[in-house]
Design brief:
- The chain has four helices and four strands, in the order ααααββββ.
- It is α+β, with helices and mostly antiparallel strands.
- It has a single domain, classed as Nuclear Transport Factor 2, Chain: A, CATH 3.10.450.
- A hairpin with a 3-residue loop joins β1 and β2.
- The longest helix has 23 residues.
- The radius of gyration is 21 Å and the shape is globular.
């Protein structure tokens, strides 16, 4: 009996280690990669709306029933005011982390910057976005701002200034 207890503990420990290893080493499916690409394309559309200074296009990227932290009407009013004051701007995704991802909903952690031509009106931050997919299109249903400052990423290739990846603006024809 005394030998059975250590053997059982060893087996339990090894099985737990194997489980953790499988969890971290799991292969991302082609479907998950496709969903991630769709959400990245959504943020490219956000970039296109900022690049064109189009308040209507930016507003349409939010779900009609959004209420947190503001309604779609308030988003439209904010965008119209922002573009009237600052004109088109550059929206840059510094990083995008997928916290939950499914075929009809997702939660992402977005680190971003918006830069205006003169710098006045530029802003950045980290937020958690909740997205939903309806009729083949993703839209934000809610967001929660975590900070007004972008995260600092350790990157030895870029002197610790982040990954430097910028979504290319996509201009709608």
């Amino acid at each position: 009996m005394r030998r059975a207890v250590p053997a059982a503990l060893a087996a339990l420990t090894l099985s737990a280690c194997a489980y953790v290893q499988v969890g971290f080493g799991r292969r991302v499916s082609d479907r998950e990669l496709a969903l991630q690409d769709e959400i990245r394309a959504y943020y490219e559309d956000v970039g296109a709306a900022f690049a064109s200074g189009n308040a209507q296009a930016l507003t349409q990227l939010f779900a009609p029933g959004i209420t947190r932290p503001m309604t779609r009407d308030r988003i439209r009013a904010w965008a119209e005011d922002f573009f009237a004051k600052h004109g088109p701007a550059r929206f840059t995704v510094v990083s995008l982390d997928f916290e939950r991802l499914g075929p009809v909903s997702a939660v992402v952690r977005l680190d971003y910057r918006v830069e205006t031509r003169g710098g006045d009106g530029s802003f950045a931050g980290v937020e958690r976005d909740e997205l939903v997919r309806r009729d083949g299109r993703w839209s934000v249903t809610a967001w929660e701002k975590e900070t007004d400052e972008p995260r600092r990423h350790k990157d030895t290739k870029n002197g610790g200034k982040g990954n430097g990846k910028r979504l290319r603006p996509v201009v709608n024809p």
